[in-house]
Write a structure and sequence with these properties.
Blueprint (H helix, E strand, L loop, with lengths): L7 E2 H8 L9 H8 L6 H9 L3 H6 L13 E2 L1 H15 L4 H8 L6 H8 L4 H15 L3 E6 L4 E8 L7 H20 L7 E3 L8 H7 L4 E2 L5 E6 L12 H14 L8 H11 L7 H7 L4 H10 L4 H18 L5 H7 L5 H12 L3 H7 L2
Parallel strand pairs: 5-6
Antiparallel strand pairs: 1-2, 3-4, 4-7, 5-7
């Protein structure tokens, strides 16, 4: 998949921008709910509720037809929608404001299916599964540690230049949902962001009661490992199953059928002992020649996908507190630490040592 692969259900993207369902038509309410003091709240509110949908989608080169449930759009088109919204509202921090306006109901049946899981870790795993299908440019997953666990959000397809919008929106939205589910019983230990602090960094601290850090190895919400088994107050397996069934009956998905995504999932399972192209092809039910051809048709290669997985696993290793370059090099199948360091510099533009120092 790449930025032009049409893999995102338009029906899902509309939940990001159709905030009229829960917006009170009062400027004072908008300021209070968003926690942001602006000079023209009335004008911003008018833009939110009076957005010309046809022009909005047309400007992003989307053939928008109301009532068409089977439309898919690309990452590039999605970013173009965000770009229009940020410029129209003159709010570079729009992700934060929108995330704070979004409730479980804005996530639709996906939200219902997640919050009716029996435990918090099952809720997070459900969100991760849905993300693969509904918004494949991002990957979401829970990562366990001995004393601390994390809910990690990271790019699979580049969302530049508005990566921060998508991370802000999801981080704030999930943070608020967490607060609602635990009803103030627990507080998270931190909200980490993988990019430098933006000019509006002070606004982040209005939304998160826990410590906020930038320039971290991963974007994630962190909390005590014991929270994994926290029993959710709305837990109801039958309701969760019904909501998931309804979700996928009403919003079509196609991401799971994309070969590069299937290959990455296979490679992750082989952490430390990655299969050859031929063996990977066999597991995917095809010949090595066919795998090469199909990957080329999707604009990628086996080596590129392997590098993507290795980089992701490296970031996870460092995020969990690992500091041995030799150890991670061996875990990822490199001949030695120098070969790993060369690859890491190609992935990130910096040495492993510099990357670790940035995170301290």
């Amino acid at each position: 998949m790449n930025v032009d692969t049409e893999c995102i259900p338009l029906g899902h993207i509309q939940t990001y921008f159709d905030l009229r369902k829960s917006v009170v038509l009062e400027a004072d309410w908008l300021v209070k709910r968003s926690l942001i003091a602006v000079n023209n709240p009335g004008e911003i509110l008018e833009n939110i509720i009076g957005l010309n949908q046809e022009a909005f989608y047309r400007n992003a080169h989307i053939d928008y037809r109301p009532g068409d449930p089977d439309r898919f759009i690309s990452t590039r088109q999605t970013v173009a929608l965000v770009d229009q919204a940020i410029k129209a509202l003159e709010m570079p921090y729009l992700g934060l404001a929108m995330g704070n306006l979004m409730t479980v109901s804005h996530h639709g049946m996906a939200g219902v299916a997640a919050v009716t899981q029996p435990t918090l870790v099952e809720c997070l795993d459900t969100i991760g599964r849905f993300c693969v299908e509904l918004f494949p440019p991002l990957e979401m997953k829970s990562v366990d540690g001995p004393s601390e666990a994390a809910f990690v959000i990271e790019e699979v397809i580049s969302l530049a230049p508005h990566t921060h919008f998508f991370l802000e929106l999801n981080m704030v939205s999930f943070y608020n949902i967490f607060q609602h589910l635990v009803a103030g019983e627990y507080e998270l230990t931190g909200a980490d962001f993988s990019y430098p602090e933006p000019a509006w960094g002070n606004i982040y601290r209005r939304y998160f009661k826990c410590p906020v850090r930038f320039n971290q190895p991963q974007t994630c919400l962190r909390g005590s490992a014991s929270l994994a088994n926290y029993e959710l107050p709305l837990g109801n397996r039958l309701m969760a199953m019904s909501a998931e069934k309804s979700l996928f009956e009403n919003i079509p998905t196609r991401a799971i059928r994309f070969l590069p995504l299937r290959l990455r999932r296979l490679l992750v399972r082989y952490y430390g002992a990655f299969p050859s192209l031929e063996n990977a092809a066999s597991e995917l039910g095809m010949s090595g020649r066919t795998l090469r051809r199909k990957l080329a048709e999707d604009g990628t290669t086996y080596q590129h996908e392997l590098d993507q997985v290795r980089e992701k696993l490296t970031r996870e290793y460092f995020a969990r507190g690992g500091t041995s370059i030799t150890e991670v090099a061996l875990l990822l199948g490199f001949a030695d630490s120098s070969a790993f360091a060369k690859a890491f510099r190609r992935w990130t533009g910096m040495s492993p040592t510099a990357f670790l120092a940035r995170s301290e």
